[in-house]
Amino acid sequence: MATGQKVQPKSSEVEAIGVSSSTQINDDGDQEVRKVPWWSYIWDYEPTRGHKERIFVQKLDVSLLTILSLGYFIKNLDQSNISNAYVSGMKEDLHMNGNQLNLIDVAWTSGYVVGQLPSQLILTRVRPSIWIPSCEIIWTILTFCISAASTSNQVVAIRFFVGLLESIFYPAAHYIIGSWYKPSELGKRACIFHASSAAAAMFSGYLQAAVYKGLNGTMGKAGWQWLFIMDGVISIPIAFAGFWLYPDFPETTRAFYLNAEDRLLGVKRMNDIGRAPRLKLGWSIVRRVFTRWHVYALSVLYIIFINTGPSTSINPLSLWLKSKGYSVSQINIIPTGQSAVQLVSTVALSILSDLIRRRALVMSISTFFGLLTSILLAVWYLPSGVKWFAFFATRIAVPYGPLSMSWANEICTGDAEERALVIGIMNAMGYAFNAWLPVLTYPAKDSPKFTKGFIFSSAAYAAQFGITGLVVWLQRREIRHKAKSQLFEEPERELELDRDRDHESDQLPKL
């Protein structure tokens, strides 16, 4: 080889280069030797990624990841506010009993289930930059309305429509993330976006404590009513920002921060990993979805995950604190520690998941903590320190959810419409059971012990181990089957080419 000749790496060699490699591919496709940065084990460092692609991913992080995180923040702020308002005076002012709190939860969940699949189908035809912000604005208006409710029945009715509108967000967010990010980037982004729910729960607790102290009785409104007003004030600007910040999909984007070269790069990145673009929606999607194992196994997996604990309006720690005579401020602030644990564990496990590229193993770590803490709380009569540990460490089980959505994006990577529907069906089925199951397993009248609920949770986490293992087995079997198919297809293609060449040679005039 001549001195100074540039070496073009083979695609297999490029794919084999990992985080520990010191070889990097520049924008011209040439190899350069560079020292691997220390942060490569924390954030997604790819030696094959050129400068232009790094800038492109940074643009997505600043815009798409930010607006998704803010959108999920306001959605979960609204959900957390119901629980915080209930223990901060709403129960007494609206003359509610424990079962009515469960009924409010059932109403929200019912709306949430009804809206899932229609929204995912709408997303295949309507730009997310129009659909998502429009729904956010309407549910924000309804949140304002809760502050004016005078009976629990009014809250129930409003919460149904809030759930209907909020149902569009979570599956849509994972579908959009899966349309822009590669597998090495996907887990962290999905979990960082999901971690904003923990930040929302923390903020809701601090907000309720501050509102109760500073605004309770102002203008004739109770502290819990001001909580929903402040929720709406925070949500409105975030909803309007979505019209400009959502980039839609790589093949349809018109985002102001992506130039023509960025748009082509976005399409190329998805083509390179075999993630199919959207096609014309037809009845064939029904056959494609329901004749594959993906929708069945992944739906069972998500049904179990969503129902491992109580509903969002029931926080066993808050109710235990209330039974112990803690003040309203303490009841709102102490549980924010749970959200802090959830936030840190979500980010940490997502980094580990993308680093070792083994989703199921990391998800099983999350499951282990759920099982351990559920068993401890089912026992209940524990040393004080152990009980506090169990209440807080139970939130390490939450990262299982966003990681399972990232896994679904990867399993269904070859069919965009299937990917959209499977994610929607997973979430819809999970909450379809969540509409009634927590009423049986964690009824508010069982507080603060919830013995029946924690025993059920222990069994559910054991089942979660089982379904995770089953999906791993099914995925590996599918990969082997595809590899065998490709192995047999290659010789057949060669034979067809040989026959075509022989046929062409027979057509040539003989000399």
Descriptive notes:
With about 500 residues, the chain is an all-alpha fold. Helices cover about 70% and strands about 0% of the residues. It is built from 20 helices and two strands. The chain has helices at about 10-15, 50-95, 100-125, 130-145, 150-165, 170-180, 185-215, 225-245, 260-270, 285-290, 295-305, 315-325, 330-335, 335-355, 360-380, 385-395, 400-410, 415-435, 435-440, 450-505, and strands at about 25, 30-35. A two-stranded antiparallel sheet has the order 1-2. β1 (about 25) and β2 form a beta hairpin. α3 (about 100-125) packs parallel to α5 (about 150-165) and α7 runs antiparallel to α14 (about 335-355). The longest helix is centred in the C-terminal third of the chain and has 57 residues, at about 450-505. The two termini are about 45 Å apart.
